[in-house]
Amino acid sequence: MNDRPLREPTFLILTALAQGPQHGYGIMTDVERMSDGRVRLRPGTLYAALDRVVADGLVEADREEVVNGRLRRYYRLTPPGSGRLAAEVDRLRQNASVAARRLRLGAQQTGGPA
Amino acid sequence: MSTASGLEDRYRRLLRCYPAWYRRQHEEEILGVLMTAARPGQRRPGAREFADLLWSALKIRARTVLRGAGSQPWAGAVTQFALVLPLLMVVLRVTELCVRGAQYGFGSPADILIGAYGEPGAYTRSFQLNPFQVALSGNVTDALTAGPLPWLALAVLVGLGLRRAAAALAACVPLAFLAIALTNDYTLAGGPRTDGILYACALESLALLASAGTAGGWQALRWRPAVLLAAGTTALGVAVNGGFWRLFPVPTAVQRARRLRLLGPGQIPHGFLDRLLGTGPGGLGDWLLAQGTLVALIVVVIVVMLVSSPVNRRVLILLAVPFALESVIYACSLVNPPLPAAVGNAIATLPLLVILLAAIAVSRWPERGAGAGPTGRPTTPDG
User: Fold this and answer.
1) Among B105, B129, B138, B235, fewest CB within 10 Å belongs to which?
2) ipTM greater than 0.90
3) How far is CA B185 from CA B13, B277, B376, in A?
């Protein structure tokens, strides 16, 4: 398995699918909501990223439905995708805790706010 | 036309930038998202959407070419190119050796090693006529570009499925040549058949790294087109080396007639048959035969057979790339007044460096991406 850190859009796409299958537009809006509007995926970028994670076996197509004459394809996280996301969460958590600890120590040494 | 259908048409036109296979899979889906996300009353795609779709289409196209996607022809073509190029170069070298050797003598193994086909004693002579350092560097660069050994070694490594070792060797050949050339003040632009071979080596390296299909060695080779290509390459090799006709001089129709005393000397000067068929000494037909026109026709037939499949068509395009680059570099060398040697060298080196940098970039991509389609299935070259 590839152990490189996930890029933020990929991380957010996997996170959007962690709770259950979603279609492309659902993922786009969910990512924007989760990142407080900071990450706004456009359709081209979204589908290029989806194509990559599907090729990597992290995500797979779940089902298709037609709503108002438009095709909607739902995607879901695969077991390797869940594992990859969990590993990334651990990595980020570990990095964040190290950073927080060092900030606290630095603040104690300089007498500034922790 | 309603606003929505006008916008949809414009989006559809924009989506044509994507490869056809990608559109088949995702066009309706992306269109659905684009239309759902459109503002009420929106008539045309926004600038950011436009740039985003265009950039993504470019990325998908680049990925399709270099890493493959599904059963796409480019992916299959890159795999086949990586397998077939060393094979063809070996065939070409063997043909050159056979045709020129049969006409002028084969020479020693050292002569063959430096690609001096039909020039017996060239290796020894180079040391007699030049200072040792000059002769040595000349012979080494000749062995790298004109000799059969690098391509033979590449064909063996590729055949055994040792993809990374083959890619490393293919990258080392042009780099070694460059190192020797630049330390010995060689002029790179316009060297006979040198630049094309160097570009071919670098492209081989890139194709091997970009294509996981070559990991299985010869098993991944599509033999029928490969054999046809090898036959075409043999024919081309024969043609450019003077043709078989010099080996087996066939008397013309008139000469045969004269020999059989059907025609007296001077009865029909050069003969109407000669004129009709274009044969006879100095006739156009003889010249064409000597230049291997018949052989070239065989090549054309083979090429026509090959271009009948999308993969084969793309393999031919890839095979033409190094030699098209060489032609451009050669054309640069013909500029009058001539370009300074340093500029010529820089122009000749640039494509090489770009290809090798691309190979390095591809080698750093995750292994499993190569040759896997969007569904994660291994690539199966079609056509």
Assistant:
1) B129
2) no
3) 52, 51, 49
What's the rounded mean pLDDT across residues A76-92? 93
**CA angle, corner B361, sides to B360 and B366, nearest 5?**
110
Cβ–Cβ contact B57 with A under 8 A: yes
By Cβ distance, the residue of B36, B49, B373 closest to A25 is B36
DSSP letters along B274-326, please? HHHHT-STT-HHHHHHHTTHHHHHHHHHHHHHHTTSHHHHHHHHHHHHHHHHH
Burial status of residue A61 (CB atoms within 10 A of its CB: 0-12, 13-18, 19 or more): middle
Question: If you ran DSSP here, which 8-state letter would residue B92 be given?
Answer: H
pTM for this structure?
Answer: 0.59
Are B57 and A44 a contacting pair at CB < 8 A? Answer: yes
Instruction: Please give the C-alpha separations between residue B161 and each of B86, B112, B137, B166, B359, in angstroms, as whole numbers.
Output: 13, 27, 32, 9, 18
Q: Do B29 and A42 touch (CB under 8 A)?
A: no
* Selected residue with higher pLDDT from B72 and A64: A64
Number of H-type helices and E-type strands within chain B: 17, 0
User: Which pLDDT value is given to residue B63?
Assistant: 73
Which residues 6+ apart lie within 8 Å of B338 measured at CB? Answer: B344
Residues in chain B with CB shorter than 8 Å from the CB of A43 are: 30, 33-34, 37, 49, 52-53
**What are the sequence ranges of the domains in chain A?**
8-110
Question: DSSP class of residue B339?
Answer: P
Q: Which two tokens stand for residue B68?
A: 């493959």
Cα separation of B279 and B170, whole Å? 45
